Here is the input.
Amino acid sequence: MKCEACDASAKPLSPSKIESFMQEVGEWSLIQDSGKQKLQRVFHTHNYAKSIAFTNAIAQLAETANHHPLIIVEYSTVTVEWWSHKIDGLHKNDFIMAAKTSDLL
Here is the structure.
């Protein structure tokens, strides 16, 4: 599935759509941060080099889609958060990118 263009006039997903899409990205959590809904997942790697390699793969995916997450790199964990900055909430694209991120590891 491919991301579609999202502009500032787009509306964040409704709670029912979010609930439906959450079933497709099982290990991701729905969080609230500064009043914004985001998708978050903590990935466990075996060491720092693998965390960096995974982060680089996410960066390449993000550049290709022109949709960029928050990434926090620690020794053996990588925390990823997806949301759509332009609409300060969740869009279908965030769920697509979450699924693609999960497929990288």
About this structure: The helical segments are 15-22, 48-65, 92-104.
